[in-house]
Amino acid sequence: MLKQSLYSIIFTMNSKKLTAAVSTIIERVKRDGDQALSYYGQKFDRVKLEQQNFRINQSEIDEAASRIDAALKKAIDAAAVNIRRFHLEELRHIRRSWFIRGRGIIRGCVVTPIENAGIYVPGGRFSYPSTVLMSAIPARVAGVEKVVMATPPGKLTPAVLYAAKVSGVDEVFRVGGPQAIAALAFGTGTIPKVDLIVGPGNAYVNEAKRQVFGAVGIDSLAGPSEIAIIADETAPASFVCADIEAQAEHDPLAMAYFMTSSKELARVVRANIPAAMRRQVVVTCCTIDAAISRVNRIAPEHLEIMTRDPLKVARRIRNAGAIFLGGNTPTAVGDYWAGPSHILPTAGTARFSSVLSVETFLKRTSYIGYGKRNIRQAAPFVELMAKAEGLDGHRRSIEIRRRA
Q1: Is 50 one of the catalytic residues?
Q2: Which residue is catalytic, options 207, 301, 304, 359?
């Protein structure tokens, strides 16, 4: 399948040279800190920045906010309200800390937010104020104490800075690429070390996230964007074509899978796909049942369902990052406006991973407490299991309490 060959490039990097290059950058940042960031900023972004210029101060952010188009500012404000409202509702439904108490035993789970989160906002072909909103707001709703953001200097637009202000980002740094990931993972004199890094990026950023995982948490390894569309004869061909083009414009490696039960709709869509995008689009004429099975195998990042009863179809979908119901719900409304984060699992990882959310920024800690009588009652069973595994120290740690 075309998708598998493309994503094998992304996830294995298909190049020892790329992996080695990223490793060199990370090691230099660990060793030289801000000096390395200045070096790589000039080398890759062609911007000469000294340590004191990495951080964007509040006056710069306020000045950028004053220059943003009034209509766009209003749109960002309204989108932020939608996103925050959605995640506050999500928080209300998340299971909080809980305990089982009885007969001298305490067991439970304590849910706490991580302390520090790093938001990476890409800035290659486009600028992404929406990504700021979609990553920083869930972190704030979760209760993260400090949210810092890194983004390449080339696409540091007033809209990106205003989105950071609206989202409650504490510090913004004009540093991009794998060097930014290394700085967030290990800290430098200027950029603080964080506990979790979230946000998409190119193959180099992705590889950097892979290499620093363990020193820091990451949300996911994001591949190119993808969409699947299931449609019957009621779907307008113009809607389908527009949504395919919208997804394909992200990246030359972005993919679109269109499945329809209508031969005529398949014909029209094939005929209207721009020539430059045709290698990115797979059109299949099949039954809706077959389309559902195929989607569950592909596990797409985005799934649009344009059928008479989209909810009926959606209930049979097990694997998708986000599902868009009906012809009036294009992916773009989720990208910018609806509320759920647009940072989604790609490359089939929706089979086992989830959309970025408030839960991304929460962690769980088990509580276990036994009284003297309880540990004596449990001791024979625990000792037998420790002995079966050959862990004599474990057995003795129980035995000493049983005899006390």
Answers
A1: no
A2: 301
Q: Copy the structure tokens of residue 81.
A: 């309200």
- How far, in Å, CA of 228 to CA of 292, rounded? 10
Tokens of 101: 């108490």
Distance CA(389)–CA(364), nearest Å, equals: 27
Average pLDDT of every residue of the chain: 91
Q: Which residue has the tokens 């490696």?
A: 253
Q: Which of 90, 171, 207, 302 is catalytic?
A: 302
Q: Reading across the β-sheet that carries 146-150, which strands appear in turn?
A: 55-56, 171-173, 146-150, 116-120, 196-198, 217-218
Structure tokens at 172: 């913004």
- Sketch out the chain's domains with CATH numbers: 34-220 (3.40.50.1980), 226-352 (3.40.50.1980), 371-403 (no CATH)
Alpha-helical regions (H) of 187-236: 203-212
Q: Is residue 12 over pLDDT 70?
A: no
Residue 197 Cα distances to 180, 201, 227, 261, angstroms: 10, 12, 25, 42
Which pair of tokens denotes residue 162?
A: 């205003």
The H or E element that residue 40 is part of is helix 34-44
Q: Is residue 126 very low, low, confident or very high in pLDDT (cuts 50, 70, 90)? A: low
Which residues, listed in sequence order, are joined to residue 367 by a DSSP beta bridge? 108
Q: Give the pLDDT confidence score for residue 15 in this predicted structure.
A: 82
Dihedral angle computed from the Cα positions of residues 352, 357, 358 and 359, in that order, rounded to the nearest 10 degrees? 0
For the beta carbon of residue 261, count every other beta carbon within 10 angstroms: 19
Alpha helices in 94-176 (DSSP H): 129-142, 158-167
302 in catalytic set:
yes
pLDDT for res 124: 67
Q: What is the pLDDT of residues 362-375, one digit of tens each?
A: 999 999 999 999 99
CB atoms near residue 43 (< 10 Å): 12
pLDDT at 225: 86
**Measured between alpha carbons, how far is 114 from 196 in angstroms, rounded to an integer?**
8
Measure the CA–CA gap between 360 and 321, rounded to whole angstroms. 14
d(CA 377, CA 62): 64
